[in-house]
Specification:
By secondary structure, the protein is an alpha+beta fold. It is built from 11 helices and 35 strands. The longest helix has 25 residues. The protein is extended and about 125 Å long.
């Protein structure tokens, strides 16, 4: 309204000027030329600037049209509030009034929104031309920002302070008002589900002292989101025709808050009767394919099952060699009965013309391109594209990785656009734990997973406690010599002592690695060199280190590893699996000679269409001496991450004299975990998880003075925790509680960690 009113006043000015000018011009001879022009009222602008809008009066005669255009042109500059013209004795008098220049913009009374936020909101800056309408618009924008945070009673007053030389200060005086929350959420028209059940499905929450999560502010934009949440909820439970007829927030009469009202039409609840497939691509096994779909006859319709079925059909035909598959569906309704027909069509074969990568500012294109299993000129293959996208995701360099297909100017070809958004790849990791053996332990690490944007990884890790300290520094080059060869090196050291301080061990060394990657598979060959030494005091009660004390033991070994990774995320996988098998042969020089084998795997399965993620982890290993006995530095240790609820090396054989862990020659561990963001605050990224870990470790070559050396009884722990992805990596807090253990095991019930180390 203010804009319309302002324009109306401007038109009135124009009208009055034309009336005045017409009266003057009728008294002036048409052929009379202007002898002189006087300009008055200008302060900042020069006379020549104003006269530049006039025609050349030496060649053109004065008339209504030229003067009217001159006036309009001056107004259109936005620099003048008034322009008056008058003709006296062949002298054109031009009087102007300039808009002032804004000298300063300030805010008074703002506590909830800082000056930077408000400055960006008003979009008015010093040295701008003052315009009353712009200021009015700025007031409305400030009000909208305060409404966004629930301050609907906020009052904004714009004050203009005149200064010398045509300058003004603009002061926005702000009264923020009280917070208005949603007092009640009402549903009208719902019969099948209660108000309370529907309230739990939307993001807007009623104001109550006991409600810690969720937003109780009234935000109009959030109502659209809540409408979609309600529609999704009903569609997943058979209500195909569900609609929200009205969603409105009503201010209470006493201005104490808002009532949120949703008027819904549930419609009938549909039971799936018949599922059919229409396709010229397959004639046989249609029924078998139908049986494998997520949507089932005799069950209530579920939109998630429909989406899953479309995905199953798409993948089936793509895996069968068909390209550009389109799966559409149609409904046939009869009262509460629903027939669903899937129609499959195939497009023409197309070829990849260009691969465009966008969004990467730090990471080089080559780092992304080398993860692709297709190239320009290749026939388009959806499976290869999806596999490549997942491979890029597993790099851990990006917040998201998306793709889209665009038509190309070339016949039967298309362009693949891969869009990424980079995340912080440099991180600081930090972890804290407590155990009865080591008391408080602190882990710290610095990692850069995308060094200089070339995909190289450099890292430093250390773990320090009262009785133990470790460090590791290394670098990995995933494409050595611009080939799909991974090269790496690590330098490490581990020092520890028992609780009495009479046994100390120190191990240090390095390893060099060279690997090759092909799609999801990775093979690697490592050379490891380490030196370990154990020292004991005269008062030592150790009975398990006989033959090791005071002797430097050199281990020279070579390790072959084979792994596969199909997971969909680096930090937080929700589907897929990974596994790794390593086989180490020691005896290439040095003092130790053994064969060591380890297998580890992780699998992730979405449940209820991704609402819950079920994870399964397993590990097992053994070491066999080929010459002499297996020393403590080469044995396995169990606990910490591998068996939550126990100390890092708190499980398995221990020295009877000093209770020091001596490791074992054999181990296994299994873990099941269920995680979800259900019942957590919306849009926070928090997830809860529950777990159960099972494992054991046994067997040493020093049986004398060792308790539990042949005890393979399982240890079992249950626990729960919270996790969230932060800019520096995952943050995790967990509590683990052993329900089956041995008397000599050491527990660690609480663990906190943040960063990419975990």
């Amino acid at each position: 309204m203010l804009v319309i009113y302002s324009k109306f006043l401007l038109y009135i000015k124009y009208f009055l000027f034309l009336v005045l000018f017409t009266n003057v011009s009728f008294s002036v001879a048409e052929e009379l030329l202007i002898k002189k022009i006087n300009v008055t009222g200008e302060k900042r602008l020069s006379e020549s600037f104003i006269l530049n809008f006039l025609p050349d009066l030496q060649t053109e005669k004065l008339n209504d049209e030229t003067l009217n255009k001159f006036t309009k042109d001056l107004y259109n500059t936005g620099l003048f509030s008034t322009v008056n013209l008058n003709i006296i004795n062949n002298v054109l008098e031009i009087n102007v009034k300039e808009f002032p220049i804004i000298n300063d913009v300030s805010f008074v009374g703002n506590d909830l929104l800082n000056e930077e936020e408000l400055t960006a909101t008003v979009n008015i800056s010093p040295r701008d031309i003052f315009n009353k309408q712009n200021v009015t618009d700025a007031v409305e924008r400030i009000k909208n920002e305060y409404q966004r945070i629930g301050r609907y009673l906020a009052e904004i007053n714009a004050k203009k302070v005149n200064l010398s030389e045509g300058r003004v200060n603009i002061i926005f005086e702000i009264t923020e008002g009280t917070l208005l929350t949603v007092k009640n959420v009402n549903f009208i028209g719902n019969k099948f589900f209660s108000d309370n059940e529907l309230k739990s499905k939307i993001s807007t929450k009623e104001d109550a002292w006991y409600k810690l999560f969720g937003s109780n502010k009234f935000i109009p934009e959030r109502m659209e989101y809540d409408k979609e949440k309600l529609k999704q909820f009903y569609n997943e439970r058979g209500f195909v025709d569900f609609k929200v007829n009205l969603a409105r927030g009503d201010l209470l009469p006493n201005f104490s808050g808002f009532n949120l009202n949703f008027v819904v039409n549930e419609g009938p609840r549909y039971l799936v009767n018949k599922v059919s497939i229409k396709s010229l691509l397959i004639n046989e096994k249609k029924q078998s394919l139908i049986n494998n779909l997520s949507i089932k006859k005799g069950e209530y319709f579920d939109s998630r099952a429909l989406e899953s079925s479309i995905k199953i059909l798409t993948e089936f035909f793509e895996n069968a060699g068909y390209n550009f598959i389109t799966v559409s569906h149609s409904f046939e309704k009869n009262k509460n009965i629903l027939d669903i027909k899937f129609t499959i069509t195939e497009g023409d074969q197309k070829y990849i013309n260009k691969i465009n990568i966008i969004g990467n500012t730090r990471t080089s294109d080559e780092v992304i391109r080398r993860e692709l299993s297709f190239f320009e000129g290749d026939p388009f293959n959806k499976n290869r594209l999806v596999s490549s996208i997942n491979s890029i995701k597993r790099l851990g360099f990006f917040q998201f990785v998306k793709y889209r297909l665009e038509n190309s100017n070339e016949k039967n070809s298309l362009n693949v656009v891969i869009e990424v958004k980079e995340t912080n790849t440099g991180s600081v990791s930090f972890g804290v734990g407590y155990s009865t053996l080591n008391n408080t332990s602190v882990a710290f690490g610095l990692t850069e997973r995308n060094f200089l944007g070339n995909g190289n990884k450099v890292n430093f890790q250390t773990d320090i406690s009262d009785k133990k300290s470790t460090y590791n520094i290394g670098m990995t080059e995933p494409y050595f010599l611009d080939r799909p060869l991974s090269s790496s090196f690590n330098i490490f050291n581990m020092s520890s002592e028992n609780t009495k301080g009479d046994i100390k061990s120190d191990t240090s060394g390095f390893d060099l690695g060279l690997g090759i990657k092909k799609e999801n598979f990775f093979q690697k060959l490592d050379y490891n060199y380490s030196s370990s030494e154990t020292t004991t005091s005269a008062s030592s009660t150790s009975l398990s280190t006989t033959g090791e004390e005071g002797v430097e033991i050199i281990t020279s070994s070579i390790t072959y590893s084979l792994s596969e990774d199909t997971t969909d995320s680096f930090f937080n996988p929700t589907s897929g699996y990974n596994w790794k098998f390593t086989n180490t042969l020691a005896g290439l020089g040095g003092d130790a000679s053994f064969l060591k084998s380890i297998f580890k795997s992780k699998s992730f399965y979405p449940i209820n269409y991704g609402d819950f993620i079920f994870g399964f982890k397993t590990g097992a290993g053994f070491i066999t001496a080929l010459d002499d006995k297996i020393t403590s530095s080469n044995r396995f240790y169990l606990g910490g991450k591998t068996l939550r609820g126990f100390d890092n090396s708190g499980v398995g054989p221990r020295d009877t004299g000093n209770n020091q862990s001596v490791g074992g020659n054999n181990f296994y561990n299994f873990s099941i975990e269920l995680k979800s963001d259900e019942w957590m605050p919306d849009d926070t990224g928090f997830e809860w998880f529950v777990f159960s870990d099972i494992g054991s470790i046994w067997g040493t070559d020093y049986e004398t003075g060792v308790q539990g050396f042949d005890d393979s009884e399982p240890r079992i722990t249950n626990g729960f925790g919270l996790s969230v992805i932060t800019p520096v990596g995952p943050l995790q807090v967990l509590w683990g509680f052993p329900i089956q253990s041995e008397s000599y095991d050491l527990e660690e019930n609480f663990q906190f960690s943040i960063g990419t180390r975990f």
